[in-house]
């Protein structure tokens, strides 16, 4: 396959995967996000409480992927920003990614991205392309616990729990996009991401349960 054809195929695959994740309502996404957090906290790799306490923003995602040489993934989730001692109302985000490499199989995975700086939050919301390197996405205190890191706290912590079988090396990034459709259905057509994150709109029912799981 020529390089240009390969790039075109990957781009189309990424867009298609992202589009499949656009329809879940925010309430369902919040329920999945709560399940993701509880899954981590009830595992052998519980996320330290201090990680959540110091976070400036957090994205909680559930993603499905598959590959045979050319791979891709698509999923949905929520993003929240730190608001004092608690969190902002959630906004809906979608993901799509494509990769090239020696890979075969399929899997689902739960992802928590903890942003430790305001600049990192801005990058997540503004750039549209947020790199997620598989090598740095390892859960556990050796990689992510600030008590054991042995140096400055990194801008971002990645936590991943995978289900299913998958092997090989991945080369690619994860594309995040704000789901305006879902957010407008929840908060109203005039709602902006900035206003939602500044709590200009009431948080959906059940948000407090999700906040408590992070506090």
Features:
215 residues, globular, 34% helix
Please describe what this structure looks like:
This protein is of the alpha+beta class. The chain has one domain. It is 34% helix and 34% strand. Strands 1, 2, 3, 4, 5 and 6 form a six-stranded antiparallel β-sheet that branches. β1 (57-83) and β2 (86-87) form a beta hairpin. The chain is globular, with a radius of gyration of 17 Å. The termini are far apart. Residues 6-21, 66-71, 99-105, 133-144 and 166-172 have low confidence and may be disordered.
Describe the sheet with the most strands.
6 strands, antiparallel
From the N-terminal CA to the C-terminal CA, the straight-line distance is 50 Å
Count the strands? 6
Mean pLDDT metric: 73
Overall number of domains: 1
Helix and strand element order? HHHEEEHEHEEHHH
Percent of residues in β-strands? 25-35%
Please count the helical segments: 8
Question: What percentage of residues falls in helices of 4 or more residues?
Answer: 25-40%
Model regions low in confidence, pLDDT < 50 over at least 5 residues: 6-21, 66-71, 99-105, 133-144, 166-172
Morphology call: globular
Q: Give the C-alpha Rg.
A: 17 Å
Protein structure class: alpha+beta
């Amino acid at each position: 396959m020529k390089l240009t054809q390969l790039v075109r195929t990957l781009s189309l695959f990424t867009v298609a995967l992202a589009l499949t994740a656009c329809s879940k309502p925010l309430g369902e996404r919040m329920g999945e996000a709560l399940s993701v957090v509880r899954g981590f906290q009830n595992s052998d790799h519980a996320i330290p409480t201090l990680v959540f306490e110091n976070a400036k923003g957090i994205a909680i995602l559930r993603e499905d992927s598959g590959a045979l040489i050319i791979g891709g993934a698509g999923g949905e989730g929520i993003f929240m920003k730190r608001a004092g001692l608690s969190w902002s109302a959630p906004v809906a985000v979608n993901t799509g990614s494509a990769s090239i490499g020696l890979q075969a199989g399929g899997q689902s995975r739960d992802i928590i991205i903890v942003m430790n700086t305001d600049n990192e939050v801005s990058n997540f919301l503004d750039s549209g392309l947020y790199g997620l390197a598989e090598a740095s996405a390892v859960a556990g205190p050796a990689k992510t616990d600030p008590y054991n890191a042995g140096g400055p706290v990194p801008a971002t912590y990645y936590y991943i729990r995978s289900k299913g079988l998958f092997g090989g090396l991945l080369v690619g990034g994860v594309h995040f996009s704000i789901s305006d459709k879902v957010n407008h259905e929840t908060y109203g057509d005039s709602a902006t991401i900035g206003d939602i994150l500044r709590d200009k709109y009431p948080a959906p029912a059940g948000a407090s349960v999700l906040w408590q799981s992070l506090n």
